[in-house]
Design a protein that fits this description.
about 400 residues; mainly alpha; 15 helices; about 80% helix; about 0% strand; MFS transporter; MFS_dom; MFS_Transporter
Length: about 400
């Protein structure tokens, strides 16, 4: 039954990624029609992120009650309804209203699925799982780009909503395949752990800052890529929407390759490899040598992002213990979404009131902080990791 379940989990992560990149791709065409300012995309992003923070913090109790399969099915259904609402919105406040259920749906499913795979599957499956997220995130701007070519961003959202409804049906049929979270995994007893207790564990503050930085970097890179291409490099909106997908293409390809690399390279070194690639991609974006280097830079930053998130999540039981992995995953997801919530809107203000040319410099600053915290995390948790490794 596990072999039948794995493709369902992969489909669920395609669903999770589909809408994540669409707002950034469509926003250059949306904001004028909605009577919004350029920076207001950050407001919608913030509302979505607040919803994900709340649902991620509640994910442990929801998973213990409904099971990971039930949480996933309900969350995808909620997301589908929200995206259909996006497609019907004609004013900015309506977009904000529908962002609430979208955020609530995204947080719980992310935490539940990540913890389930970290406990039940090898590291390569975590990378390939997030490769499926990248596949969805790469497809989102393509779907939206085609909709924009026909003159309607609403049509793009409608198409993605219909895909989410179809996946909800698949998830409901798959419920008998899921293991209940109450079942022990190698003796681990799952129960809620208070946040103050978790924060006292060595390495927890560092891993939370890592997650904050990673999602701040990924969401800012993805959301503002199209605007940077249009406003700074002079690329037309339709082409920019397609170019924004290059970042997610890089993530997708990188995670597919990472799944094979993890058979030889441990999670810690996979994180370092990703950070080095992000640095190289940021330099390429900065170079004033034409669209070729911009093209390569967006892909390279995506390639660098590829191994970081799944590797940090997969090593959670190793760093902090299997008995607290469910609590830690929810807390990590919530902190990650704080980065998604705060940083893209802040960069939106910088883009509007200073210049969108700061895009690659913002990525560089976030990367440096993430690197420092990741190295500190592994120093703090080295003793436990050595004891747990075979």
């Amino acid at each position: 039954m596990v072999s039948l379940l794995l493709p369902v989990i992969y489909l669920a992560f395609i669903s999770l990624g589909l809408p994540d990149s669409v707002l950034g791709a469509a926003w250059p065409s949306m904001y004028g029609e909605l009577g919004a300012a350029l920076s207001w995309a950050g407001v919608v992003s913030m509302i979505v992120s607040l919803g994900t923070i709340v649902s991620a913090l509640c994910s442990e109790r929801l998973t213990l009650r409904l099971g990971p399969g039930g949480v996933t099915a309900v969350s995808v259904l909620l997301t589908a309804v929200a995206l259909l609402g996006f497609s019907l919105s004609g004013q900015f406040w309506q977009l904000c209203l529908w962002a609430v259920p979208y955020g609530l749906g995204a947080g719980s499913v992310d935490a539940a699925l990540n913890n389930y795979v970290a406990l039940h599957y090898e590291s390569r499956h975590m990378s390939w799982l997030h490769c499926m997220w990248g596949l969805g995130a790469s497809a989102g701007p393509v779907i939206m780009g085609r909709a924009l070519a026909g003159g309607s961003w609403q049509g793009g959202y409608r198409t993605i909503a219909l895909l989410q409804f179809a996946l909800t049906a698949v998830l409901l049929l798959s419920l008998p395949l899921w293991k209940r979270p109450q079942a022990n995994v190698e003796g681990a007893e799952f129960k809620p752990h208070p946040i103050p207790e978790l924060l006292r564990r060595p390495g927890v503050p560092q891993v939370l800052v890592c997650f904050f930085c990673y999602c701040a970097l990924e969401s800012t890179a993805g959301m503002w890529a199209a605007s940077y291409c249009t406003l700074v490099r002079g690329i037309d909106a339709g082409t920019a929407a397609r170019w924004a997908s290059l970042f997610y293409v890089g993530i997708t390809v990188g995670r597919g390759v990472s799944g094979f690399l993890t058979m030889k390279v441990n999670d810690q070194n996979m994180i370092r490899l990703g950070q080095a690639l992000i640095a190289a991609g940021t330099v390429l974006i900065l170079l004033p040598t034409g669209q070729g280097t911009l093209f390569a830079g967006l892909i390279t930053v995506g390639l660098g992002c590829a191994p970081i998130y799944p590797s940090i999540i997969h090593e959670t039981p190793l760093n902090f213990g299997r008995e607290v992995s469910m609590s830690m995953t929810g807390l990590q997801m919530a902190t990650a979404y704080v980065g998604t919530c705060l940083v893209p809107p802040l960069f939106g203000l910088l883009a509007q009131y200073v210049t969108p040319a700061l895009y690659p410099w913002a990525l560089a600053v976030i990367l440096v902080l993430m690197f420092v915290m990741a190295e500190s995390l592994h120093r703090k948790t080295a003793l436990r990791r050595r004891a747990m490794q075979p």
